[in-house]
């Protein structure tokens, strides 16, 4: 542990100390025309990564291939201050700087960290984040509500698939690995005449999973079967009008059998669960390009997502402990329909306004989300299987704008504001109704100073928000059981208020004149008001969850990234973070005061460090390691995940357009936890409360063959 902490300190110090060496260098020392320019597409205006005024990371296609990343969770451990929780077959919920949900069961959830794929909002649907033919992943840390709205209070992940081009091109990929893994993918595109430029991709991924169910004598109860298809079409309707079409299809049919009474990878479930997603999505964006220095973008999105999530509630079988065991299965089926409409006016080039070169964007946004839940479960109050239904409709209307002013060649300010109104309707089969509504305000103010050609300093004040909601399941169950004391406790918590997040951030970003050294460092402090935290009631055989507004929460920390291309054949890269958080004013239902404790899913440090090299012109090697500090599983109990460190390796042979890769992840086969609960569930121990954990992936290895054409 001391070695890891020491290395983290050294890495951050190196990154910090490296910036001044080039940030204030003379601008004319070398020709910079060959420096690779990395642009951020998630900003209103396309800016380079160094020009952005918040902590942003980009994972490109090469970085994903070096880790053999098939899904978003395969990349997350390499990112500073980004974490994810288990409880599902793939990472559905993500935390940034210690803020983010960990699960969803009965009641509606508004994610703190958003997920957007090709402009379509998949927040809360992380199963859709397969990475074949994804060009890059952008990670925005800190409040992003001013740009992205209600689902981006703590940050946002944006995935863009490869854009269409006029030239015919594509790739295919085949992969095989241990645990019976097999993957195939094909992507191709080009010009389709009057229809425009198109690109289509399809991938299929299969695997047995990492669990052995000893009761059923099966090793595939956590199997993964994932199909993903994407289509993009850019059509020039005329010289002034551009229509961009996006189509998505996902069919995920995964098993779910993750938790063991013995905290091993061997389970005893007689009814293994599942984790499914079937979704179709359409995006149409019509852009008018006829103005001299601006454009108008009009877009509509539609997403239909049917999810199924189920698990063996008792994790075991009848007969394991006669007289003590029980048998129950819990399944959740959601039908989600999202409709989005947006229009924005965006400047393309700075234009003089009141004598100051300025850029702007003004937009109007509408979002309608409808979710129907059917829960099929064993009702212990009635002693029989039961069906629970709920309908949840959420309507959002927002107006937003951002104004950039260039006060000089070096100094700019960026001011953003978003006002969003939500009206929600909730109704369930227990007769619980609620109509939470409110108006939320978010935005940002940044000052940016350009120290040299590609080196910047910035300071940002930002405000994010998350909508309030309803605790229908908890209140309904208390009423059903006639528990007056419990009902009175939950009555005041039938709904919960919106949460707000304020953040201050200072950063330095830059590249050396020859482009071989890049470094980005940010320091932040944030504070949360009306913090939405998950609580649990466990009384008189009643075990239900609810969300409560704690008084506040605070956090501060550092993030650093560095890459140094020492020679043409050797490079080093690293990202590191340090985080300190605190809960204030949160008392659990059993009277435990969590004030002063760190937030859940908020490790104090995270580290990724690696070396990349070439042997001749054809052989490439990459070795990297991830490390993460211990962290609390939940805000409502004090059980922790252990610290972890894992090692990855890739050996690549390049020949013309072919690439053959031998890859390995977690080569030391470390068991590390990604989700944990604390309660009694073992009939052999008469249901004494214990900590139960879900592990991340074990040692992985395989071979991948790909060809570009």
UniProtKB/TrEMBL annotation:
Residues 1-25 form the signal peptide. PROSITE patterns: TONB_DEPENDENT_REC_3. It is a multi-pass membrane protein. Residues 215-667 form the TonB-dependent receptor-like beta-barrel domain. The keyword RNA-binding does not apply. InterPro entries: Beta-barrel_TonB, Beta-barrel_TonB_sf, Plug_dom, TonB-dep_rcpt-like. It comes from the Bacteria. Keywords: Cell outer membrane, Ion transport, Iron, Iron transport, Membrane, Receptor, Signal, TonB box, Transmembrane, Transmembrane beta strand, Transport. Residues 49-155 form the TonB-dependent receptor plug domain. One of its GO terms (biological process) is iron ion transport. It is found in: Cell outer membrane. Pfam families: Plug, TonB_dep_Rec_b-barrel. One of its GO terms (cellular component) is cell outer membrane. Belongs to the TonB-dependent receptor family. This is TonB-dependent receptor. It comes from Idiomarina rhizosphaerae.
